[in-house]
Design a protein that fits this description.
Layout: H1 30-49, H2 56-73, H3 90-99, H4 101-110, H5 115-136, H6 138-150, H7 160-175, H8 177-208, H9 215-243, H10 273-280, H11 284-300, H12 306-330
Length: 336
């Protein structure tokens, strides 16, 4: 019988295998909406081809593309948060974004619900746009637009017959009830596409700065960053719209808001159009928006520092500023 081995050591217990990461769900609830929107777009487009829905081709194409984009986005997984908190109600988020935005953005990290904020932004935009057209009158808006297009000169200015067709089409867009509804639908899709594109840029920017944020978190941050700024601009803009005489309002510059809280008040748009646009980006609501977006990215992401949030917010601000300055330098007449 062999001797007992005093140097024998029992093998260590097996290392427990780490728990697998929970499977990230996808927002499949958006797919029926996306399919319905695309189907409506196809019907409207066919109605435009058949000539019984005015301007239906362009409106249908935009609605179809909006539905297609929403369907493709529904393939992106939602974030998986280790310790999610209870979701805030829609009312708590809409009101809290004004006085406790950090709490709202932290909640959006766990529950990136963006539809409510998007709906508020769209409705406020519709109300202001409708009031603006009624106050300024379609005739003045269209005549000003056609005049500025004709002043662009070759090769940008269209021939006279095309200008007349443009005048007729734009007048119908602002007066025909069906085309006005189509315009509202196109504006809503346009805001969604702009928000989706901005969220993609925020996602890429955060990755560049070494942070982590899910696409849906970025999209929720984008729309909830817009909400307070759009509310201030549209509500105060409506008040100013009816306090001022229509002749004192610009048919193009005031289409988004009549509120002027920036340094462009110091210059004449006709004399210095590029500098006028440059100074219009230096104002209270712009600084408020920059801070909101930076805070939203910081609190709404998983691992996003405050510096990364500010860096991305300022980067997007500079890109938009450069785009506006270049566009104005090419077509200075539209701001005069």
């Amino acid at each position: 019988m062999s001797a007992f081995n005093e140097d024998f050591q029992a093998p260590p217990p097996p290392t427990p295998t780490p728990e697998s990461e929970p499977r990230a769900p996808r927002p499949v609830k958006f797919r029926p909406v996306a399919i319905a929107l695309a189907a409506i777009g196809v019907v409207v487009c066919l109605g435009g081809v058949a000539k019984f829905i005015p301007a239906g081709i362009s409106a249908g194409a935009i609605l179809f593309l909006g539905g297609l984009l929403l369907f493709l986005l529904s393939l992106i997984p939602l974030p998986v948060v280790r310790e999610p908190e209870e979701p805030l109600s829609f009312f708590e988020k809409v009101t809290g974004i004004f006085y406790e935005p950090a709490r709202v953005f932290r909640n959006l990290r766990s529950h990136p619900h963006w539809v409510g904020a998007f709906a508020v932004v769209v409705v406020l935009s519709w109300i202001y746009s409708f009031a603006f057209v009624q106050r300024i009158t379609p005739e003045r808006i269209v005549e000003h637009m056609v005049e500025k297009v004709s002043e662009m000169g070759p090769p940008f200015a269209p021939p006279p017959e095309r200008l007349e067709q443009m005048r007729t089409d734009q007048m119908a867009d602002l007066k025909n009830p069906i085309q006005r509804v189509e315009g509202m639908a196109k504006a809503a899709v346009g805001l969604f596409v702009l928000g989706a594109f901005t969220a993609a840029l925020c996602l890429l920017g955060i990755l560049v700065f070494g942070g982590r944020i899910n696409y849906w978190q970025a999209l929720a941050v984008v729309f909830y960053s817009w909400l307070p700024v759009v509310t201030i601009q549209k509500v105060l803009g409506l008040v100013i719209l009816y306090l001022k005489t229509p002749e004192d309002l610009h048919p193009i510059r005031n289409q988004d808001t009549t509120l002027q809280d920036n340094l462009s008040l110091l210059l004449s748009a006709a004399d210095h159009p590029v500098l006028f646009v440059l100074l219009s980006f230096i104002g209270l609501t712009w600084f408020y928006y920059l801070w909101l977006r930076a805070s939203g990215l910081h609190y709404g992401g998983t691992k996003v520092s405050s510096g990364a949030g500010w860096g991305v917010s300022i980067m997007l601000y500079v890109l938009l500023l450069l785009f506006a300055v270049v566009s104005t330098s090419l077509f200075p007449g539209f701001v005069s």
